[in-house]
Amino acid sequence: MAVLKADVVVIGAGAVGTAVVRELSGFDLSVVAVDRLNDIGGDASKANSAIIHTGFDAPPGTLESRLVVQANPLYDALSAELDIPFRRVGAVLVAVTEEEEAELPKIMGKARQNGVFDLKLLTAPEVLEMEPAVNPDVRAGIHVPRESIIDPFLLVVAQAENAAKNGATFITGCEVIGLRSADKSLRVATTRGEIETRFVVNAAGLNADRISGYLGIDDFRMHPRRGQFHVLDRTAPVQVQHIILPVPTKITKGKLVTPTPHGNWLIGPTAEDIDDRMCHSTTREGMEEIARGVHKLIPSLDIGSTITQYDGLRPVRTPGGYHIRSFESLPGYLELSGIRSTGVTSSVAVARYCCSKLLEMGLPAGEKQGFDGTRRGIPCFRDADADTRADLVRKDPLYAHVVCRCETVTEAEIVQAIRREPGARDVDGVKRRVRAGLGRCQGGFCGARVPQILARELGIPLEEVTKKGSGSRILTGRKKVLDEECGAW
Predict the structure, then answer these.
(1) Model pLDDT for residues 415-468, shown as the tens digit of each residue
(2) Do the beta carbons of residue 52 and residue 86 sit within 8 Å?
(3) Measured between alpha carbons, how far is 67 from 178 in angstroms, rounded to an integer?
(4) Positive or negative CA dihedral for 280, 286, 290, 291?
(5) pLDDT tens across 385-400, in order?
(6) Catalytic residues, which ones?
(7) Which domains does the chain carry?
(8) What is the DSSP string of 327-353?
(9) How far is CA 105 from the centre of its chain?
């Protein structure tokens, strides 16, 4: 098998890795991103609280604090350039007990140390005036006006699409199984062949220690911290306008309530240190813990409005903290580790910081002529007015075929999600790009039609369509699909 050659290989295509690839696509370089999963952003980056943090409660004086604080102001321009949903809804941090109230001056002091100066200390009446549904026993609070919400998966997708538009290559379903230094280059062994490169960026998240281990670096370990969430229906009577935050602890930011850009509500997460890096199961105990935590903040919140639950694994490093480092003995190798719960927020600043490090390491500095930093999203039929809908149908008749009733997702949107680069290759990839299957019935209606469209567009037999890559085929055994049953859906 021929050896693929590239100037830079980025291992890991989550929020951080994809942001790095997009930043590198602005240089006159060949850039390849590899990820073991079937899709970009398919692990930790798809499963988080979907908040763009200000960094007010980050550990002062750390690289994490510096990068999160720098990143937050960048999202107004970035969301416009990449056409992704982003809203500065603000947050209210709520202290319900005397002990929590005593922490508020410390939090305000930490925010000042981090350079976040726009927080405001609130009295109990001021909290209740802003958010009447908050626990009436509230003692005080803090208003954080620039805490914001985003669709984290569309953030990853948009950056990947823009990077691909500017020449970067994404190879998914491609696990790194070896890495060695040889003849002023680095050789990346993968399950799909070998890649020779001058520079490697290790953005492998939970597997960052394994990748560095191939080069003899063994001074840190990664372990997963599971965060479970409830997703509430759009119609849930939550009755709050801001992100509602508890007083954070050393381990977790606590159980929060946040709106999403699509109108649902997220509540959670838990913070459970586990051993299994592949575990993606929710637990009854975790769901009940979340309910107790959020009822402390909003007693009237109805967990019965939950339409699904999910979990994400945050990559926790020992020793802790953000680490972005190069090695004198390993020219061309840049390692990123410990970028966990604030990683989606910091990703854009991490990418710029990494590029500056790579330039110091000898990366050619020539900017790409004709670089285009913009990307247009897939037109959303559900959110369009009547005239826009009619225009969309005139231009593409597949917009007249509603496949997902709960989210009003059309066949045209699903087809575009598949045909884009890098595009959806499985049911979950379609779901995260255009929300087919994310509504109240969780795919009960569109679950048969989406695989048909994937099979047709990818040119594969229906039985080879998967939910999320290898080992997750939708159909097993003997099958019979009738066009008259499914074709008109």
Answers:
(1) 999 999 999 999 999 999 999 999 999 999 999 999 999 999 999 999 999 999
(2) yes
(3) 30
(4) positive
(5) 999 999 999 999 999 9
(6) 53
(7) 1-86+149-220+319-377 (3.50.50.60), 91-145+224-315 (3.30.9.10), 386-486 (1.10.10.1100)
(8) -TTSTTEEEEE---TTHHHHHHHHHHH
(9) 32
